[in-house]
From TrEMBL:
Cellular compartments annotated: Membrane
SUPFAM superfamilies with a match to the protein in the record: MFS general substrate transporter
Classification lineage: Eukaryota, Viridiplantae, Streptophyta, Embryophyta, Tracheophyta
GO molecular function terms attached to this record: transmembrane transporter activity
Organism from which the protein derives: Macleaya cordata (Five-seeded plume-poppy)
Protein family membership: Belongs to the major facilitator superfamily. Proton-dependent oligopeptide transporter (POT/PTR) (TC 2.A.17) family.
Transmembrane portions of the chain: 30-55, 67-85, 97-116, 136-156, 177-202, 208-226, 326-344, 364-387, 447-469, 490-509, 529-548
Keywords: Membrane, Transmembrane, Transmembrane helix
InterPro entries found in the cross-reference section: MFS_trans_sf, POT_fam
Coiled coil: none
Protein name: Proton-dependent oligopeptide transporter family
A Pfam family assignment: PTR2
GO cellular component: membrane
Membrane-topology descriptor: Multi-pass membrane protein
Length: 614
């Protein structure tokens, strides 16, 4: 077997007992199927639930929009739980399957409430009509749905990333492609959801639409489970939050000490040192940013034993620095998700007041308008992958064509333009409604703002997922990938805050004493001004992002060990299987550290088999 400098995996030659190749695109095919099927229902609910809340659960305009954005915000916030659990306690595949069961249960509850009218509230003149036991079922089902969908999103993308070894040049390029195809899977599933499932919900009943979403999610998670023999499994390790806290505590304890000018004097584990962690640890080179954190790596004289609450390694300190550097990037990508929330709420309500006909007889559900940018993305993503990336790669020599932060920046700029266009379209829609309510403008006018934002999402979402996965320390990749969803979560919550704040301020400031977004009649609102408000904020945010993106220092690992472990490898049946010194695998479910005092000398299967578990 050809030696792989990055670890025991070379290409896709890592085999299990049945001779099946581990990792690579063969493994991610199962993940793509899950993402497509799960997003059929999830995205359909994202764009249509605002109407379900208004027409069935009897919320008012602002109440339905805020309920949806709060639900979506909670969903993405809870992805942090999935990321934390899969990094620390369970493998990513098991975490994804457990949260999948929760999501299926929640969808079943939503379907039941949509089916039985006695579980639905009566109409009233308040912002919310849901009370008593009906409210308990309504909000508990939404919370479980948020928990299941969020937990899955916190673990499954990182599972897909684990199928590619970043130390292998070919697999490093494939990793960049993986996130593009992940978005394409989302787009394909969402396209079916916002057309077929939304049409069923609007014309055949909300209960049937939710039922189809439940079945699709169930089949998707079955596919995820079927792929288990093909996955490279990353063993969970020490708590990433505990390691961060240790650095903070030790740095505070050593606050009076001077950081040595020679960084070689800072404490770091040697290559041959055996750690107690259940996963191999990559060493990360020292950086000069946040020097006060380096105090955590000062090994004081006279200390005979190294304790984690007394001294931390340079690598551990650098892990905290990486997370600290990520914070302004996360903050700068929040507003783009606030803009996205408007396309899933107010833009859908706009569409409901427009001409929905396609031809003389067919009527398009307003919630199906996002299919236009989704279909556009379905074409654009392969063009980006097969033409733009190879072309840019020749110029920049970057595996992804352009850096992840450059890609995110393009998306942020386009999102600002999208909000500006949305305001112009709303002016045209409202003017026509005032002039002749019987002849509204076509629904397809909304395709401009949706198309521009769809392209923005292609750049931003994939760029963020790839950035947070690649830059994350080895044992924090699920949690770090969840930062993408954290930004979405805060963006959705911020949307609710903006709606309430704008309504309160404009209600006091205008002569009519009516807020821009108040009431049931969109024709009497000033939605265009709200869109332009977000456009201005987005341009200011883009300028802020440019500063932090240029300031950011990419991670530089000093030595990459093997990045994934395999729980199903029978090393005795693979005589060509070789391991470098100081590498860790799972044998029969137990973490094993294989070490040798002879540098790069490989070990025979018999020597590996006689190793003792940590």
């Amino acid at each position: 077997m050809e030696e792989n400098k990055g670890g025991f995996e070379t290409g896709y030659k890592c085999l299990n007992q049945m001779g099946l190749r581990k990792g690579g695109f063969r493994a991610t095919m199962f993940i793509y199927v899950l993402i497509a099927l799960e997003n059929m229902g999830f995205v359909a609910n994202m764009v249509s639930m605002v109407l379900y809340f208004m027409l069935v659960m009897h919320f008012d305009l602002a109440g339905s929009a805020n309920t949806l954005t709060n639900f979506l915000g909670t969903t993405y916030l809870l992805s942090l739980i999935g990321g934390f659990i899969s990094d620390t306690y369970l493998t990513r595949i098991n975490t994804g399957l457990i949260f999948g069961l929760v999501e299926i249960l929640a969808l079943t509850m939503v379907t039941i409430q949509a089916h039985f009218s006695e579980l639905q509230p009566e109409a009233c003149n308040k912002s919310s009509c849901v009370r008593g036991g009906k409210a308990v079922m309504f909000y508990s089902s939404l919370f479980l749905l948020a928990l299941g969908a969020g937990g899955m999103r916190g673990s499954v993308p990182a599972l897909g990333g684990d199928q590619f070894n970043q130390n292998d040049p070919k697999e490093r390029k494939a990793l960049a492609s993986f996130f593009n195809w992940l978005l394409l899977s989302t787009t394909l599933g969402a396209s079916i959801g916002v057309t077929f499932i939304v049409w069923v919900s609007m014309n055949r009943g909300w209960d049937l639409g939710f039922f189809i979403a439940t079945i699709a999610a169930f089949v998707g998670f079955v596919f995820l489970a079927l792929g288990k023999p093909y996955y490279r499994i990353q063993a969970p390790g020490d708590s990433p939050l505990l390691r961060v806290i240790q650095v903070m505590v030790v740095a505070f304890r050593n606050r009076s000490l001077e950081v040595p000018k020679n960084t070689e004097e800072l404490y770091e584990i040697s290559e041959e040192t055996t750690t107690t962690s259940s996963t191999d640890e990559e060493k990360i080179s020292h950086t000069d940013q946040f020097r006060f954190l380096d105090k955590a790596a000062i090994l004081q004289q006279g200390v005979s034993t190294v304790e984690p609450w007394r001294v931390c390694t340079v690598t551990q300190v650098e892990q905290v620095k990486i997370l600290t550097r990520m914070l302004p990037i996360i903050a700068s990508t929040i507003l783009v998700n606030t803009c996205l929330a408007q396309l899933q709420t107010f833009s859908v309500q706009q569409g409901n007041l427009m001409d929905l006909h396609l031809g003389p007889s067919f009527k398009i559900p307003a919630a199906s308008i996002p299919v236009i940018p989704l279909l556009f993305l379905t074409i654009l993503i392969p063009i980006y992958e097969f033409f733009f990336v190879p072309f840019a790669r020749k110029i920049t020599k970057h595996p992804s064509g352009i850096t992840q932060l450059q890609r995110v920046g393009v998306g942020l700029a386009l999102s600002a333009i999208s909000m500006g266009v949305a305001g112009i379209v709303e002016v045209k829609r409202r003017n026509q409604a005032m002039k002749d309510p019987t002849k509204p403008i076509s629904l397809f006018w909304l395709s401009f703002q949706y198309a521009i934002f769809g392209i923005a999402d292609m750049f931003t979402l994939v760029g963020m997922l790839e950035f947070f996965y690649k830059e994350a320390p080895l044992g924090m990749r699920s949690l770090s990938t969840s930062f993408t969803w954290l930004a979405q979560s805060i963006g959705y919550f911020l949307s609710s805050v903006f709606v309430e704040l704008i309504n309160t301020i404009t209600k006091r400031a205008t002569k009519s004493k009516q807020g821009w977004l108040e009431g049931q009649d969109l024709n009497k609102s000033n939605l265009n001004l709200f869109y332009w408000f977000l456009a201005i904020l987005s341009f200011l945010n883009f300028a802020n992002y440019l500063f932090w993106a240029s300031w950011y220092k990419y991670k530089a690992a000093s030595d990459h060990h093997n990045e994934v472990v395999d729980s199903d490898i029978d090393i005795h049946d693979n005589p060509a299987f070789e391991l470098k010194a100081t590498e860790k695998i799972l044998i029969n479910g137990s973490p094993f550290l294989i070490s040798s005092s002879h540098g790069d000398q490989t070990m025979t299967p018999q020597e590996v088999g006689s190793a003792k578990p940590n």
